[in-house]
């Protein structure tokens, strides 16, 4: 895969494109292109297929510098699950959505979420599954709104938030549905950096991606170290999956 190539998922041209993969030097850029980027069976499968594609390229080219950057478009990173479509599929949360989060969490090269806009509920969880996060500071919020629906949080989702957030922040996220702007998210260590505008956020995320891309030279040890970091998150995300 060269810098000029774009690979889309699903690969079938008769299906709507949900994910685009491009490359900028050592950075693989995964762009979600379905407007609000709500999670359905099709979206989760496209993300997983795209991750497999990136991993295959890294292995085949024996890359010693590589990072994955994910982003949305316009004012949305992801607005969470598409409730009607998601819950029309039996076992969607356990068998499809949470295994996708686990795949991101344990991915074999550094991952950066470029949060260009709103990251609500499932979108917030996807961002938190990455190794690093860069968020737009002048527009968009991160939020878990389950308490307002109301809806419970499955153990895997709770574990992901609990281990990635400070205790008082986790409390406010799950019990108050607090919305965090980019500046608030940075102050509360939900993200690693923030910048103004879509372009500014993207450029800052790419700077971070380039900085950490040499960590890919560790190969399988990168994901092995993450397995040691997050055993409870991974086990709870996968505890009810029928794969």
Question: Would you give an account of this structure?
Answer:
The protein is α/β, with parallel strands linked by helices and about 240 residues long. The chain has one domain (about 5-235): 2-enoyl-CoA Hydratase, Chain A, domain 1 (Alpha-Beta Complex), CATH 3.90.226. About 40% of the residues lie in helices and about 15% in strands. The protein has helices at about 40-60, 85, 90-105, 120-130, 155-165, 165-175, 180-185, 200-210, 220-230, 230-235, and strands at about 5-10, 20-25, 25-30, 65-70, 75-80, 110-115, 120, 130-135, 140-145, 195. The protein has a 7-stranded mixed β-sheet with strand order 1-2-3-4-6-8-10, sandwiched between helices. Strands 5-7-9 form a 3-stranded parallel β-sheet. Strand 3 (about 25-30), helix 1 and strand 4 form a beta-alpha-beta unit. It catalyses: a (3E)-enoyl-CoA = a 4-saturated (2E)-enoyl-CoA; a (3Z)-enoyl-CoA = a 4-saturated (2E)-enoyl-CoA. InterPro entries: ClpP/crotonase-like_dom_sf, Enoyl-CoA_hydra/iso. It holds the Pfam family ECH_1. GO terms for molecular function: delta(3)-delta(2)-enoyl-CoA isomerase activity.
């Amino acid at each position: 895969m060269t810098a000029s190539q774009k690979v889309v998922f699903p690969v079938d041209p008769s299906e709507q494109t949900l994910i685009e993969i491009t490359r900028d030097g050592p950075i693989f850029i995964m762009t979600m292109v379905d407007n609000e980027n709500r999670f359905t069976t099709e979206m989760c499968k496209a993300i997983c297929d795209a991750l497999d594609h990136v991993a295959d390229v890294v292995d085949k080219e024996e890359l010693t510098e590589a990072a994955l950057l994910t982003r949305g478009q316009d004012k949305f990173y992801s607005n969470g699950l598409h409730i009607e479509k998601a819950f029309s599929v039996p076992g969607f949360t356990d068998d499809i959505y949470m295994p996708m989060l686990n795949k991101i969490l344990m991915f074999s090269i550094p991952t950066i979420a470029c949060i260009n806009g709103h990251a609500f509920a499932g979108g917030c969880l996807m961002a938190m599954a990455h190794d690093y996060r860069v968020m737009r500071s002048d527009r968009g919020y991160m939020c878990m709104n389950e308490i307002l629906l109301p809806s419970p949080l499955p153990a895997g989702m709770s574990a992901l938030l609990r281990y990635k957030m400070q205790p008082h922040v986790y409390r406010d996220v799950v019990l108050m549905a607090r919305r965090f702007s980019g500046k608030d998210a940075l102050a509360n260590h939900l993200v690693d950096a923030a910048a103004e505008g879509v372009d500014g956020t993207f450029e800052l995320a790419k700077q971070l991606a380039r900085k950490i891309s040499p960590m890919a030279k560790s190969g399988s040890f990168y994901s092995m170290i993450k397995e040691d970091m997050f055993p409870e998150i991974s086990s709870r995300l996968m505890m009810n999956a029928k794969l």
